[in-house]
Structures are given as C-alpha cells and as structure tokens.
Design brief:
The protein is of the alpha+beta class. The chain has four helices and six strands, in the order H-H-E-E-E-H-E-E-E-H. Strands 3-2-1-6-5-4 form a six-stranded antiparallel β-sheet, sandwiched between helices. The longest helix has 18 residues.
C-alpha cells in the first residue's frame, strides 16, 4: 500500500509540473491523460469528458459530457449528465469508485474489457466543467489512495486551466 501512495503522490507532482504555467484546457487534459496512462498500472482507458451545452431542436439548451483528450480505445462520444458512471459523478459532484462495472445499474459499456472504474468531477466555481474517467480490465482495481489522487489531479486542473 505504501508503494501505491508514494506512486500516487508522484503522479500528482508530475501533473502539477506539466501544467504549471500552461492554462490551455485541451493541452493540459491531453498531457494529464498521458501521465496517468504512463504511470498508473493495469488500465485500459483514461481520459476526460468535457461539459458542453447542446442545443435542442426547440432552441433550448442542456449540458452534456462530450469526449475530450484520452488514452486507450475509441470511446463513447456523448454522455448525458446523470447517465452512467461519468454522468452520475457529474450530477453528484462526487468521486465514484466502481469495483465491478457489471454491478453498476446504469453503466454505459464503451469497452467490454473494462471491469472497474473511477470517475471524479472537475469543479470550477461550484460548477462541473469536466470529469476524469479511468477504467481498468481488473475487478476492484481502484483504492482510496487512487481516489485521493484523482481528486488532487482534478483540483489541479480546476485551478490550472482557463475553463
């Protein structure tokens, strides 16, 4: 466990050093997904969904999560707020750790090899602007230390990017 905590603290430091002085959202999300992909073992997808306003036919608008920078296989492009693990994390403004995605009632399958998932919202001025989504092909892959790390990364991105 001590190794995981040390590794997770190192990941936070790497992300902090990479985004320091750079405010561009896409650049920072792209580099962050690459850092997580490179340094977190046993993953099959890591990336971001960014909140975008979508216009309906009747000219009203609603928020939707739209695929952003990621590492891994092609993914679902749009997710409604409240749907799946990503949408639930966005709606609740809470980190969600799912030990077994088959037991999450509203799980959206983008990659059938994913067995566990962790999603944390990125919050700016009390508004969710994006979510960080990480999937693993292993059951029960994500620990409390991982949850703390992804929350720290989300906080860095919330403060370090020009949302």
């Amino acid at each position: 466990m001590e190794f995981v905590v040390t590794l997770n603290m190192e990941i936070v430091r790497i992300v902090q050093s990479i985004i320091e002085g750079e405010r561009d959202v896409i650049a920072n999300l792209a580099n962050t997904s690459a850092v997580l992909w490179e340094h977190m073992p046993r993953l099959n997808w890591v990336g971001f969904y960014i909140v975008r306003q979508v216009r309906k036919i009747d000219a009203t608008y609603f928020d939707q999560l739209v695929l952003g920078p990621f590492q891994g296989k092609p993914a679902c492009i749009r997710i409604n707020i409240g749907r799946g693990v990503c949408g639930a994390a966005a709606a609740s403004k809470q980190t969600i750790v799912v030990p077994n995605v088959d037991e999450f009632a509203d799980h959206i399958v983008c990659d059938g090899n994913s067995k566990s998932e962790i999603v944390t919202p990125i919050i700016v001025n009390d508004k969710v602007v994006a979510v960080l989504d990480i999937d693993s092909p292993e059951l029960d892959r994500f620990s409390e230390s991982d949850a703390q790390m992804v929350r720290s990364v989300a906080e860095l991105l919330a403060k370090g990017c020009a949302w």
